[in-house]
From TrEMBL:
Gene3D superfamilies found in the cross-reference section: 2,3-Dihydroxybiphenyl 1,2-Dioxygenase, domain 1 (3.10.180.10)
Name of this chain's protein: VOC domain-containing protein
Domain VOC intervals: 47-163, 207-321
Keywords tagged on the record: Signal, TPR repeat
Presence of the UniProt keyword Signal in the record: yes
Top-level division of the source organism's lineage: Bacteria
Signal peptide (residue range): 1-22
Amino acid sequence: MTIDLTRRTLLQLAGATSLAMAAAAAARAEGMPQGGGPTYASRTPMRVGMVTLRVKNLDKVADYYRDVIGLTVMERSASVARLGAGGVALLVLEARPDAAIEPRNAAGLYHTAFLMPSRKDLARWLVAAASHRVPLSGFADHLVSESVYLDDPEGNGIEVYADRDPSQWQWSEGSVKMATDELNIPDLLSLTNTRVADYARAPEGLRVGHMHLRVGDLAQAESFYHGTIGLDPTRKRNGAAFLSSGRYHHHLGMNVWQSQGAGQRDDATTGLAWFSLVTAKQDILAAQEERLRKGGAQLTTLANGVEAVDPWGTRVRLLKA
């Protein structure tokens, strides 16, 4: 397939007239002021495992993640679709045809971030997205990573990104330097042939690199995800906080930009059902469970871990790898 892939094409897909506008859109997606090696996120003591979404139109949403992100459909029925990459399940979609769409000002999912194994993979994906005229909502250079933003058919946010090598991340007093700068599109696209869309399937190493949540109160969210779950703060600014395990830039982002003061989520709506944090270390899992029980958290015992509920009803599963 021959593609007329120009900067103008990408800007049109992002609904922007300039790179600055696209970066501004990405700034809104990450809450930054305007203007690691991909396996690092999975080598940390804890990492994001998989995500489960409640959706109204199962076929439409499953086809989107298959065709746009390149996930492989591993299981599909009238009520559920399981998708992944490299034989690893990353996304489960549960059919809720009668559900209302979760409001943007409710607590819940801000975006699921799919981490490409390499910068070249991100370039190949971007060429394919542009060739299929996939609407984009922004793209930016975050210093630690390079990102493209979009939404699935039911408004669930998505980030597709590639990390810079961790040696290039700048840390100061426990805080990692991030920004929302203009993405150098020509430099990114120089890694691949822009005239041929050769991204038909997600690379085997694609994983969910991080989750970004809408919460009702930042201090309360930090108390739960840092104090109880055990993730470490890596950055805080502009109504958002970022946390990680093992000095990754962030496995979890949280913000109150649209959801300040949000109450309990409605399980009868679409959106995030649960996500998992996975560890290979039994002592970490045991410590998490002890903190949760001491804190009076609502817990459900699972075969390989526990499920906890955050202050707004978002469920997080802590699982043994």
